[in-house]
Amino acid sequence: MRTFTAFEQTHKIDIEGLLRNLRRQGTPSRVYYMELFYDTEIFRAVDRRFGVTAGLDASAPDYEYRQHIAMQRFLGYETVRTSLLALPTGNGAQADDTTAGAQAREARSWINEHRGMIATWDDFERYPWPDPDTIVFDTRALEWYEKNLPEDMGVVVHGGHFCEYLCWLMGYETLCFALHDDRKLVQAIADRVLALEIKACRTAMQFKRVRLFWGSDDMGFRTGLMISPDDMRHFVLSGHRALARITHDAGNVYLLHACGKRTDIVEDLIEDVKLDALHSWEDNIEKITDAKRAYGERLSLLGGIDVDLLTRGTAAQIRKRVREVTAVCQPGGGFCLGSGNTVANYIPLRNYLTMLDEGRRL
After folding, report:
1. What is the overall mean pLDDT for the chain?
2. How far apart are CA 222 and CA 336, in angstroms?
3. Which one, of 99, 208, 117, lies nearest residue 169 by Cα?
4. Residue 314: exposed, middle, or buried by beta-carbon count in 10 A (0-12, 13-18, 19+)?
5. Which of 47, 74, 130, 325 is deepest in the core (most CB within 10 A)?
């Protein structure tokens, strides 16, 4: 069988090196990569082109796990991801996907921004809240990785959706009104979510192959935060502080993905939450290179190659930007190359691979 090679340069998978890099323990000898996720359509496009999972038994009960490992290693990532907590959030809006070609999907969906499942106290009481004292999470993936994950890789667990669950469960519009009219309801929802997120984080940290926890919690938009800085500190950052403490007590690294303009709370993220690394960068909000100069000695930075550039740029433009970002962010450690947000299905495969390839060349 023909061996397909995607990149001119190869590198060794090294979870310990990644963790040293995230802890800013000196300039690493190579560029590390991290992505919050890449869309299923990207996964399939890579597999079609390079046959990454062709040798796996698709009928095996552990096929999904082995497939995930094979793709992550091929692309150059040290981690596999999983999650534990998923609360029902109701139905949102849908629209046709306008992406052309083989990477298109049937439809796109959005959370209901007007009114979610909980808009009143009656809704709150009817909502199917799990009991944090008795909930049993599905840990089959963690149990399998505990026994079978290659030693040079680690597991990153995703969670920490504090701001997002408030928006998802209430609807953003309802949340905004409730912050003025019925803060006790907002507090009650936040308390329930916090208890469940804490239980999920503690459960994850019992597995030795778990090395990172990635809080994923969009907090803003292009010009500001979803809610006021004080409300963000009270309802949201307090939750991330709790999860970061649990993660650090287990000897692991706490990451945060948070879209939007975070200027008003970045010091809180560094000094109060004790965040190890921050993700999601949009050049029109804040360039990752500016962030590196401003606070890169106190906080690691993930990603940084703007999604718009990855979508519409040329290979030369992408390679140039990767070199620019790496030159500023790599020294001293605390930088992983990746998209500014996620590898969306509408990003041309060649552009995504170009970003990875330039990182390997460096």
Report:
1. 95
2. 23
3. 117
4. exposed
5. 325
